Amino acid sequence: MFLTLNPESGVPLFTQLHDAIVSAIAHGELRDGDKLDPVRRVAADFGINPATVKKAYDKLVAEGLAETAGRSGTVVRPGARTDAQNQQLVEGLQRAALLARAQGFNDSEIRSHLDAILKDLP
């Protein structure tokens, strides 16, 4: 798995790792059934604690983006959406919309920004 982590960024390493994997899935670099590198290998490659990698992988599993098969490792989960994923999407969009409104954006501006973001995705 090719990615970079920046310990100086102020963003927790597990969040950086999680977000990099989410981005790789969204951009098609990781596909359904692809096996993620073992926790210990990722930890050794980056010189970080295995618990940090496990925390990132556990978050991917909780979000329904990956699944663990015991000693077989963690794989990208097939694309069928779960109710939990739908709920996470709704809650995330609600938080973003509430924040945008609190910052003075109107509905049209919010939709415009969301449309622009969606156009930029693969």
Automatic annotation (TrEMBL):
This protein's UniProt keywords: DNA-binding, Transcription, Transcription regulation
The UniProt record lists the keyword RNA-binding: no
Residue ranges of domain HTH gntR-type in the record: 11-79
Top-level division of the source organism's lineage: Bacteria
InterPro entries: Tscrpt_reg_HTH_GntR, WH-like_DNA-bd_sf, WH_DNA-bd_sf
CDD domains found in the cross-reference section: WHTH_GntR
Recorded GO MF terms: DNA binding; DNA-binding transcription factor activity
Residues spanning the signal sequence: none
Membrane spanning stretches: none
Name of the featured protein: GntR family transcriptional regulator
Organism of this sequence: Corynebacterium accolens
